[in-house]
Amino acid sequence: MNQGIWLQDLPVDLEPERLPHHVAVIMDGNGRWAQHRNLPRIMGHRKGVETLKELLRCCRDWGLKALTAYAFSSENWGRPLEEVNFLMTLFEKILRQELQEMIAEDIQIRFVGNLSSLPLSLQAEIKHSMEMTRQSQGIKFTVATNYGGRQEIVHACKAIATQIQKGLLKPEEISEGLFEKYLYTVGISHPDLLIRTSGEMRISNFLLWQIAYSEIYVTETLWPDFNRHEFHQALYAYQKRERRFGKI
Ligand code: FPP
């Protein structure tokens, strides 16, 4: 396997036609990365943003079409207030700082989750960034913020029930295809590959519906240390898998 770290071009051992279309990432290990260096946890999140930016560039360079990142779960509100506030401010700052570059890079950014409980100034920045990149034709970058897979499913059920109550939908019309239209991720393909860093073997309420047939790749590497070489390894492992979707 090619061991180069800053590979601009697709590594020679990867087959372009068998790359995942959509990669989702659970960016775990920021806090531990910082603690190992005697730094405050927030420094791990700062470094984590750099990792995410590098991964986006890598997806662009290697021709992937969609990246979804789990930035803040519905359960993350239970963290110390200082850390939660830091993260909310960080998200807002990144959006302000990176918007022009995202437009220039033709990135289409979208946020999924219960966005209405986020700070109003962040909501405004989210709305603005989504509107400004709506026409972009490049990579589809989705950020799950205040996101929970169970909450998303309940939210969809309530919306469907309301349609039925209003007489606009019949129960027998409910199908998998229809259900998907009520998910936050409507219009986004299901992830082909789900990567989790820092070695935890958990899904943590991420994209429960959407990852039904995703390949899962877990690495011990902490998120701030995840780089192109690590991504290369994940894609290499993915290409060695045989996706059967329940068939033989
Ligand atoms: C998990 O590590 C990481 C997070 C909860 C935050 C991740 C967010 C970013 C990297 C910023 C992305 C921002 C945008 C707007 C795209 P952890 O704190 O759970 O680490 P630990 O398990 O070591 O404690």
Question: How would you portray this structure in words?
Answer:
- By secondary structure, this protein is α/β, with parallel strands linked by helices.
- The chain has a single domain, classed as Decaprenyl diphosphate synthase-like (Undecaprenyl pyrophosphate synthetase).
- 41% of the residues lie in helices and 14% in strands.
- The protein has seven helices and six strands; from the N terminus they run βααβαβαβααββα.
- The chain has helices at residues 30-36, 41-62, 81-104, 120-133, 149-165, 176-180, 228-240, and strands spanning 22-26, 66-73, 108-112, 140-147, 193-196, 215-218.
- The protein has a six-stranded parallel sheet, sandwiched between helices.
- α4 (120-133) links the parallel β3 (108-112) and β4.
- α1 (30-36) packs across α2.
- The radius of gyration is 19 Å and the shape is globular.
- It starts with 21 loop residues before the first strand and ends in an 8-residue tail after the last helix.
- The structure holds farnesyl diphosphate.
- Farnesyl diphosphate binds at residues 27-32, 45, 48-49, 52, 69, 71-72, 76, 91, 94, 143, 198.
- Farnesyl diphosphate is lined by residues 27-32, 45, 48-49, 52, 69, 71-72, 76, 91, 94, 143, 198.
